[in-house]
Amino acid sequence: MTQTMKDTFIVEGGHTLSGEITPQGAKNEALEVLCAVLLTDCDVTIRNIPEILDVRNLIRLLENMGVKVIRHGKGEYTFNAKDIDLQYIGSEEAVRECASLRGSVMVAGPMLARFGRALLPKPGGDRIGRRRVDTHISGLAGLGASYRYDEERKAFILESGGRLRGTYMLLDEASVTGTANILMASVLAEGRTVIYNAACEPYVQQLCKMLVGMGAEIEGIGSNLLTITGKDHLHGTVHTILPDMIEVGSFIGMAAMNRSGITIKNVSADNLGIIPESFRRLGITIEQKGDDLIVPARDSYVIDSFMDGSIMTIADAPWPGLTPDLLSVMLVVATQCRGSVLIHQKMFESRLFFVDRLIEMGAQIILCDPHRAVVIGHDHRFQLKAGRFLSPDIRAGIALLIAAMSANGISIISNIGQIDRGYEDIDARLNALGARITRSQENDLAH
């Protein structure tokens, strides 16, 4: 018998929140722009980096690859990738590190473009369903790379045999990480590359702006048609990461779930897209003042219906549609609104399975299939019951935390390392608003 210790959250529910909170830097952008430092041998300084588990793990991977990293202060780092250890890239240790971190797939594009060889393990990260790398592989192959699958290492080996060549490609899906990988490879390719059906999320736009700051030539930023003229060499730059839109949405949901009024500071409102309007469909009032969002306290939130009176459907879609990362939060919030809503999670087939825990807490939810759930709101007439949960992934974890904060009694959430992967110091930041969350350790006896 072995004994290990795992962090848990002990959450005392039912406390009203108030005050101001500022979102961290965007995790998804950070994973992209950190990989881009490999494209140059010059210094790249990045500000507003969220110091969360996934990002720290990627920075450690870059250091192991030979990137020199200087931390100037909280969230500000300078990277220099002049001396890369190419032998490490193919090592078993590198494969293990990459396989455990989803964002590491975007190391492949820069490495292939600059050094002619890259390793792309099957991706890790959340257990929320199948994650394909087809778009990455076919896009990089379109630029002239050859590839083979190494069964022993469970990884694709990519080689260019020289400089990559620009081409026209129509992506099979508007993959964010796939677009980022192909984009980073194409900025050093010979000639012109056209990427159609490219992802156009703000974080991809930010990556484009950073690459342009490094000397890349990119047209069509913000659209799904990117045209890149390759350069022989990129130089250094200074880049600032956007606020995390997923945190902004999570805080909106927390305020509504607890019938609380809070102010979310410095949200980069122009880059939130449809997120505020999607929460308004649940009856939540959101006011904008400058670059801040104010969520006033309300006793009741009434879910909209469609104009013909049919049940509201909230579904994820590629940008500028609603990000799938917020559907778990919106589902939890809907349990205490008045009315009914169909939540349709199209992208991942396992992300709604956490609703079983909400049903145990007393929520009225019908799980139609792995992708769809109907929520019948309690309108706060019934308070959710506290419980004991395990966080299955980042987004379900924050959703369960929101539920526990509104529940009657004390809840225990284990496996909170999943939450820490996406939310920096979330317990301390929410406690500053009036929440009662204690981080503790739980004995885990494994036989």
Uncertain stretches: 1-5, 124-130
Strand order of the largest sheet: 21-22-1-23
Mean pLDDT: 91
Counting helices, strands and paired strands, the structural category is alpha+beta
Q: Using DSSP, what is the number of strands?
A: 23
Question: What is this structure's SSE topology?
Answer:
Blueprint: E1 2-12, E2 18-21, H1 27-36, E3 43-47, H2 53-65, E4 68-73, E5 76-80, H3 86-89, H4 92-99, H5 108-115, E6 117-121, H6 134-142, E7 146-150, E8 155-159, E9 168-170, H7 176-186, E10 192-196, H8 202-213, E11 217-219, E12 225-229, E13 237-240, H9 245-257, E14 261-264, H10 275-280, E15 287-289, E16 292-295, E17 312-315, H11 327-334, E18 340-344, H12 355-360, E19 364-369, E20 372-376, E21 388-390, H13 394-406, E22 410-414, H14 417-420, H15 426-431, E23 436-446
Parallel strand pairs: 2-14, 3-13, 9-10, 17-18, 21-22
Antiparallel strand pairs: 1-22, 1-23, 3-5, 4-5, 6-8, 7-8, 10-12, 11-12, 14-16, 15-16, 18-20, 19-20
Give structural notes.
With 447 residues, the protein is α+β, with helices and mostly antiparallel strands. Helices cover 29% and strands 26% of the residues. The chain has 15 helices and 23 strands. Strand 9, helix 7 (176-186) and strand 10 (192-196) form a beta-alpha-beta unit. It starts with a strand and ends with a strand.
Supply the key terms.
single chain; 447 residues; alpha+beta; four-stranded mixed sheet; 15 helices; 23 strands; 26% strand; globular; disordered N terminus
Sum this structure up briefly.
Helix 7 runs parallel beside helix 8.
